[in-house]
Amino acid sequence: MAVFLGNTGNIRLRRGSSLSYGSFSDRIEPDDVNTFLNRLGFTSSLDNLLTGDRLEISTSDTRGLVCFAPSAWDSATVEDTISAYVNVNAAGGLRFFPSFEDAVNNVRASELSLAAFTGDPIAIDYIVRDLRNNVLGNVTGYTFNTDRESIDVTALSDKFKQQYSAGLISGNGSIDCLFDYKSTGVKETPLLMLQLIQRVDIGSEFDLALYVTDRSLDSSLTSVYYEMTALVTRAGITLNAESVIECSIDFVTTGEVRLLIGEPAGYILKEDDDRIQLQQSLDFLLQEVDD
């Protein structure tokens, strides 16, 4: 029997959730667009959106999303939907980028251009729907527990207590990190874990993979991990003058919890054992499997 150290573990997460919890409505006024700063905002952006979020915006307005320049689309014409990563400033102003890395680093050379417009406000629907799984940086440890309800089915004629074993399964846990707010776009920062609970309307759900062993860290291992959708219930930070700043979150699962062995969802396996990140959510699409 082999033993494993904790340094073979890892945490990957996806902002938002693969579960559909609907879109949220707002509107963009002509004065909400600042072409000098190339930022726009709407009423609920400050309370719900974080730098690095992949935002899908749509409108039923016949003008389309005229707050964006036609160059924001491949068709070079104004359309009624757009998907981009956002950089959010302190006032909730949004700057749009084609990639997560450019958004978190605020790379102005690749930003999508906005356009001034006049007339009535544009009614919009938006949703945070990230497609990528990012490694959470500076993790010092995590705990995760699964529970299964036992249901009492004892009848009056029974002499011993009877239990129904196939009760509902739930999970809960905590994640501990060393605090950091700087990101290069390669890993998610622990600051995100503190920010998730602050989403007022969207909520604090996120997709989570807790790796017990991660093949990307050691190619001799097989990945073993829990996959779930989690909900942040508590976020805290510990600050002492004589030690590094630490932060932690508690979470509960919502929906299915799976203990899996092998490659995660959203990857295609190639013959050279490398990975191709999919641009759409396809669960466990594999060209080859080891059964």
Provide the residue-averaged pLDDT: 83
Query: Which strand order does the major sheet show?
Result: 9-1-14-15-16-13-10
Tell me the series of helices and strands, N- to C-terminal. EEEEHEEEHEEEEEEHEEEEE
* Secondary structural class: mainly beta
Alpha plus pi helix count: 3
Shape call: globular
What is the CA-CA span between the terminal residues? Answer: 22 Å
Binned strand content = 35-45%
- Helix share of residues? under 10%
If you compute it from the alpha carbons, what radius of gyration comes out, rounded to the nearest whole angstrom?
Answer: 22 Å
**Model regions low in confidence, pLDDT < 50 over at least 5 residues:** 268-291
Major sheet description: 7 strands, antiparallel
Number of strands: 18
Write a structural description.
The chain is globular, with a radius of gyration of 22 Å. The chain has helices at about 45-50, 100-105, 190-195; strands spanning about 10-15, 25-30, 35, 40, 55-60, 80-90, 95, 120-130, 135, 140-150, 150, 165, 170-180, 205-215, 225-240, 245-260, 265-270, 275. About 30% of the residues are buried. It has a seven-stranded antiparallel β-sheet with strand order 9-1-14-15-16-13-10. The protein has three helices and 18 strands. Strand 3 (about 35) and strand 4 (about 40) form a beta hairpin. The chain is about 5% helix and about 40% strand. It has about 290 residues and is mainly beta. Mean pLDDT is about 85; it is low at about 270-290.
